[in-house]
Amino acid sequence: MKPVTFLVALTTVAVVLSTVSASPYGGWQPIENIHNYQIQEIAKFAVVMHNLENNFKHPLRLVSIRRGLVQVVDGMNYKLDVMVAEGNSLDSRGSMYRTEVHVRLGAMELIFFTRIVKGLN
Known about the structure:
This protein has helices at residues 12-17, 37-53, and strands at 5-7, 28-30, 60-73, 75-86, 95-104, 107-115. It is α+β, with helices and mostly antiparallel strands. Strand 4 (75-86) and strand 5 form a beta hairpin.
């Protein structure tokens, strides 16, 4: 997978840090508020990048974020379980995917986007 980065608001990391409990460097911590605007933007970014990488053959749209983890590294890693639906379907049942996005200095990079059966453990 070829890494693609996009610029995002520089306030993302600062605001998201406030949505997690104490974040020791390197350890994965639960995201307390997955409804936070910045977390929603990270999830949308992951879905859009997945669609781009697959040439929009079966485009997905974000339905909801089920759970998330954050890791403080050289920047921030976000691991999210997201519910997505195909195309413009009004069916909100969709499928569960796990994604990881790295955010550093206002840029985002999709690490992976994989269909899963179970949520984060």
